[in-house]
Amino acid sequence: MEQLAISRNMLFAQENRKDAYKILDGSARTKWVGGLTPEFMDINFDTMVHLQQVELETQKNSYCIFSVYTSADGENFSLCCKQTDEKNKTGVYSLSCDALCCKVRVYVQYDSVSPRARIRNLRLFGVWSAVLTKANITVR
Amino acid sequence: MTAKDTIDELHALVSRVLGEDQKDRFSFELTADAEESFTLCDDGDRVHIAANSGVNCACGLGYYLKNYCSVHVSQVGCNTKMPKTLPKIGTPLRVTTPYRTRYSYNYCALSYTMAFWGEEEWQKELDLLALQGVNVILDITALEEVWRRFLCKLGYTNDEARAFITGPAYYAWFNMANIYGTGGPVPMQYFIDRTVLARRNHLFMRKMGMQPVLQGYSGMVPTDVKDYVPDASIILQGLWNGMDRPAMLRSNTDCYRRLAKLFYDSQKEVFGDPTVYFATDPFHEGGKAGAMNLSTVGKTIMQTLLDSYPDAVWILQSWGENPSRALVEGIAPWKEHVLILDLYAEKRPHWETFLGREFLSTPWLYCMLNNFGGRMGLHGHLRTIATEIARASGVARCMRGIGVTPEATLSNPIIFDLFFETIWTTTGKVEPVDLKPWLRRYAERRYGSCSDTLYEAMLLLNDTVYNPELNEKGEGAPESVINTRPALQIKSASSWGNSIIAYDKKKFEHAVELFAKDMEKYLSYEGYRFDLLDLLKQVLANTAQEYHCNLAAAYDAKDVIAFRKWADKFRAIAAYTDTLLAAEKTFTLGNWVNKAKARAAGYDDFSKMLFEFNARALITTWGGSRQAADDGGLRDYSNKQWAGLTKDLYAARWARWLKDRTDELEGRHPASPDWFRMENRWTWQTDEYSDVPTQPDLRQAANTVLTAFSVDTAAN
To answer: Residue A94 is part of which domain span?
Structure first.
């Protein structure tokens, strides 16, 4: 499992698209702020990956409800994992996954300290599936 | 469209409403009559109906069914038992109306009631509208596809356009330029499915001579439009009830004219030219016009509309302070291309007082609003409808028709049944309706017959829940205290609602007793069952209000024993309310949520989740945002008396509050609940709710309500 490299042109946010890249810089001081929750952010790999872990960083001492959906065809999304409204001291959520996909959708349903969707950092872990193509993979 | 298409559709309508075996009992003829009218005459064993359009023929059919066959058709309960031999007309009967426009809907109804309707629900509704003679129908189905194409023409990608468009429950407010993006994005297939549905509905309307009201363009654009259209000059609109609003283009610019044309081009691509009617309300509910002269705004909107649709009629809502004098003055040169909806005329009529008389002599419609947010109490202004439309007809020079503009339907069917018949006449003059005989006839049609006891009940309902003099406070029906966020002092469940019951609760209960007295005679009629349960739920809501007063008094007196007693009673009445509501499909949460699920059945997991969230959020937190729910005041705007919702959310809220207050009286210090968190959690759940009505013994249910939960029990 490796951290999957994400570039800014892979990102598509529902709102405030120009700031979406801020989820990639690793800094806890910068963040993407979207519209009022719920809001989504898509990460389009344009090739298949085996997604194994999602790490999302928001605000400390708060709670964030979000879900992660994955798509093998770029249009139809299946539920991969989700986070309920449990308070989190560190603001970092790490969820295990097991999905073959070319697109990941992070759906921020609620943030207890902000009316707007906010992501400080997003890290996706897994394996690039260089030998697989969209056509011959059946996604769970 | 040929005459045969119309007549075939009329026969199909008869089959759908009355049954396949009835369709040959009627013959139809399209005439060149210049008047809005229909003529009924005998044709051997059949009845012949002649009129100048399909919808007027259908209205003639509705008239005959009502007045000769004692048939009743409504959204909530029909009696379509036809006599073996059709009653004779005798001398041919010609019925006319001076009004060419009979209009339906408020934008909000298309979300609060119809958000998840498919072909079956829409066909039933269109049939009913046709039988009532409605010929102009606000229709936002697939407008989202128009907006998607329009945005793509501006340079937005398909994904960007879809990110701006709301989810399926929120299209009303999106099209009124109040919000964007909320509850979206929907899958591409939904755009296609809705376009197919819209075209199907338009085809029916075209066959019948009805017209949809499509969207007028008044400048809505995304806030980032300048990234795509550099010469766009916009006014940011800030918030609408805590929700982000889209921006508005300045209409006094070339860019505005260019974009208006692109919008109308997109609309023509999707729908063709099915209508002359277009609705838009610039700067609706607090929108900001900046320094723009509203006369210029009005003039530009009108000119751009006429550039694309030379025969267009612009429909505006008279609501709050809109439309402004300046805007109406700006469109004055095109008055015959304007229709103003006097939106809440049954209670707060504007036509006699607003902008002088009759909106500066602009054509207008007398409209009945009655319902706000789909809130469900018994409520209406029957006497006003029976008399005021006739009075307006006698004195108004610019009145062009009537319309219904409720924010939701599926409640108080009696007022809709009366409303559209008020303008049809056999004397050439619109006359007031004599309500007493009308109420007896209504009961006979809806319940199969009407005993003196049942008639007395109807008169008492007219004197209580449908009495305009006792329904003057607040907007819409009084709300059930069970549906409110718990508190010691309660004004209403929703921010703009009320829970004032000005009529005598005991008198109303007596009406319900009389209504229920001979129930065995009427229970085979679905309208009777619906109304009986509707009345019983109102008794429960009325008594719950009294229990709550007792709870608050006991708490203030620090009387823990009394508080516990009334808390037990309150929990019991909330629980029984849920049980009772489950007996009527329309009163179940499942009937709403399952439609949302059905619409999303062929879509992906994300869309399935999204559609269910749309359905659950709209009736609770409204949009999933604390800012909109609490600061914006939208929470519980669309609270419902529905089984499932009552038990799992409302009663659960009260259970928590009752426990906390009891703890306080016993010296403990409970933490304050986070109500929004509780409500928001519920909106994301996906548990199943049944829409199959239970089959309780209704005699026993009525006895329980009228004894165990009578308002008298609050005196003990």
So the answer is: 2-136
